[in-house]
């Protein structure tokens, strides 16, 4: 079995994550749980991205210190992520002392190795706010695609990395004033020094073709030095001599969080300061990153460039699972425009496992996908209730009513029984195949196929009629159907862990379904003679008038969520 580092992009701590943001955390959690079920050693890390201009900008607009905001957001997010059943090894934060120290030491090493140098430059300066305007403090029109709300670091529309000088018709993001350009000194990292090495690695890497080809073309255009420091107050103080009033650019800061969080986690488990190297310096370790497509360059180009420049034998990305955008009813999620649903609001509408399954089913793996309430309704009522829940309840209630709660044995399975079990095993192998390829949505389709196979088999075999004339044959049919239910319990575990545990115990098993590793247990028929647990429906259908009343339901969920939010997060994201 192998070693895996599973990581998800760190959510910004300027507000509560929405469904589009939580999708990357969920995807990483599903994949990490799958790896554990397959018997692999896994470190699953991410955390709150607290530094940089988005946080400082939000804090300035509210008239508070950045850390006041991030302290409340981080604590609340940790609470919400527990409700979403994310099984992090560690959910850290960029305000962690271990992270700050790691980042400063890392870039001092790069400076010693000749990759960091100071450079005078002209930067936009707002005469009204009397401050320099790095990245998100400045907006304008993208020179590549014409998007009018591009930021000074990146265009959200086309994904191109930008500098403030690239913007057409730039303006201050705080007051809207036209900036002037003044001289300042910042520290740059010379990525061009590793360009050939990076290109060679990309060409031989196992990254998926879309990420690989995109990144290769990017690097072939030439890697220019990029500013490592910013003229802002909030962040990790730059460690270079003469840079006392400057902080590390948030993306360089947060990217190293994957390593520092691993270090922090292992130290919390009794390891020493170098235990993390047993993972990050081990060539057999595979690292997998779950991000949005707009973050590809940071993970496929900048992060490996940093690792190469360090001179240390870091493992480079094995997979970068970059999804397209999850939209909300055809529009981009937006806190300022009140477009979307935030995860605390979502939890007021339906249980976490419903959301976990639905979001994976809508995961944008090959193009942008729009979250639609009608699709959520269909997934919950059709896939969860009718396909999965109905199969489990029909089988287990039959065992309870006709066999006194004791699982009957499969005394004489016929050809149809054996072929059905073989087909279930074959479908389960398809789940594994697609999970190995980090195609989570595709894998979920085969989970449903197993449940649908069980329902077809049950309908066609009709044990409720068989038992009137052949109790033993009816018992065999129910045992086969129960074996398929057991397979479903295994397969839904990464996606819906609480529902899987519930079903596992209804089947009469003890312990955790997560402890029933797939290589030894997946597809193994259920034994006869064991007593099942207390049975009940796994899911509840959304009411028939759900879609007609969705606007009212959203408003009510927002009001309930808002009442539970910490003080600084109240009244944000509320419609109106």
Automatic annotation (TrEMBL):
Entry's localization field: Cytoplasm
Gene3D superfamilies membership: HUPs, Isoleucyl-tRNA Synthetase, Domain 1, Methionyl-tRNA synthetase, Zn-domain
Any one GO cellular component localisation term in the record: cytosol
Binding residues annotated for Zn(2+), in chain numbering: 142, 145, 155, 158
Span of domain Methionyl/Leucyl tRNA synthetase: 5-396
One MF term in the entry's GO annotations: ATP binding
Keywords: Aminoacyl-tRNA synthetase, ATP-binding, Cytoplasm, Ligase, Metal-binding, Nucleotide-binding, Protein biosynthesis, Zinc
UniProt cofactor note: Binds 1 zinc ion per subunit.
Single GO BP term: methionyl-tRNA aminoacylation
Residue positions binding ATP: 335
UniProt-listed InterPro entries: Anticodon_Met, Met-tRNA_ligase_1, Met-tRNA_synth, Methionyl/Leucyl_tRNA_Synth, MetRS_core, MetRS_Zn, Rossmann-like_a/b/a_fold, tRNAsynth_Ia_anticodon-bd
Class of this enzyme: ligase
Family membership noted in the UniProt record: Belongs to the class-I aminoacyl-tRNA synthetase family. MetG type 1 subfamily.
Name of the protein in question: Methionine--tRNA ligase
Organism, scientific name: Acidilobus saccharovorans (strain DSM 16705 / JCM 18335 / VKM B-2471 / 345-15)
Taxonomic placement: Archaea, Thermoproteota, Thermoprotei, Acidilobales, Acidilobaceae
């Amino acid at each position: 079995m192998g070693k895996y580092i599973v990581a998800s992009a760190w959510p910004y701590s300027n507000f509560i994550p929405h469904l589009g943001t939580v999708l990357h955390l969920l995807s990483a959690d599903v994949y990490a749980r799958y790896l554990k079920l397959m018997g692999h050693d896994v470190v699953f890390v991410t955390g709150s991205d607290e530094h940089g201009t988005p946080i400082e900008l939000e804090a300035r607009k509210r008239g508070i210190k950045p850390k006041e905001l991030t302290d409340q957001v981080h604590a609340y997010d940790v609470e919400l992520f527990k409700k979403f059943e994310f099984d992090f090894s560690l959910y850290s934060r960029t305000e962690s002392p271990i992270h700050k120290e790691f980042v400063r030491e890392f870039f001092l090493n790069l400076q010693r190795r000749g990759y960091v140098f100071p450079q005078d430059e002209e930067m936009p300066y707002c005469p009204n706010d009397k401050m320099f305007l790095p990245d998100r403090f400045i907006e304008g029109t993208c020179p590549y695609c014409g998007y009018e709300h591009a930021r000074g670091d990146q265009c959200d529309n086309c994904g191109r990395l930008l500098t403030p000088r690239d913007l057409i018709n730039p303006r201050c993001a705080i007051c809207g004033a036209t900036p002037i350009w003044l001289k300042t000194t910042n520290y740059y990292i010379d990525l061009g020094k590793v360009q050939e090495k990076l290109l060679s690695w990309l060409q031989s890497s196992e990254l998926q073709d879309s990420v690989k080809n995109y990144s290769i073309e990017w690097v072939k255009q030439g890697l220019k030095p990029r500013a490592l420091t910013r003229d802002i107050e909030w962040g990790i103080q730059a460690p270079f001599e003469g840079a006392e009033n400057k902080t590390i650019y948030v993306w360089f800061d947060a990217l190293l969080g994957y390593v520092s969080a691993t270090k922090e986690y292992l130290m919390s488990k009794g390891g020493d300061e170098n235990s993390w190297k047993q993972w990050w310096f081990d060539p057999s370790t595979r690292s997998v990153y779950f991000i949005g497509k707009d973050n590809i360059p940071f993970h496929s180009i900048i992060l490996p460039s940093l690792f190469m420049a360090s001179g240390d034998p870091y493992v480079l990305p094995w997979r970068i699972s970059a999804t397209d955008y999850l939209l909300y009813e055809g529009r981009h999620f937006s806190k300022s425009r009140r477009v979307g649903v935030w995860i605390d609001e979502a939890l007021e509408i339906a249980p976490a496992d419903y959301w976990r399954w639905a979001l994976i089913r809508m995961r944008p793996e090959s193009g942008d996908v729009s979250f639609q309430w009608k699709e959520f309704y269909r997934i919950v009522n059709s896939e969860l209730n009718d396909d999965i829940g109905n199969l489990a309840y029909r089988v287990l209630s039959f065992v309870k009513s006709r066999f006194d709660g004791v699982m009957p044995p499969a005394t004489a399975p016929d050809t149809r029984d054996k072929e059905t079990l073989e087909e279930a095993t074959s479908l389960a192998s398809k789940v594994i195949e697609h999970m190995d390829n980090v195609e989570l949505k595709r894998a979920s389709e085969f989970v449903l196929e197993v449940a649908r196979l069980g329902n077809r088999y049950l309908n066609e075999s009709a044990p409720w009629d068989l038992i009137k004339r052949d109790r033993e044959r009816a018992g065999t049919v129910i045992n086969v159907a129960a074996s398929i239910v057991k397979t479903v319990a295994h397969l839904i575990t990464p996606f819906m862990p609480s529902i899987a545990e519930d079903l596992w115990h209804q089947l009469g098993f003890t312990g955790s379904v997560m402890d029933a590793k797939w290589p030894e247990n997946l597809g193994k028929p259920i034994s006869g003679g064991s007593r099942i647990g207390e049975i009940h429906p796994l899911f509840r259908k959304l009411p028939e008038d759900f879609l007609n009343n969705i606007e009212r339901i959203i408003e009510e969920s927002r009001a309930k969520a808002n009442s539970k939010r910490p003080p600084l997060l109240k009244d944000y994201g509320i419609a109106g």
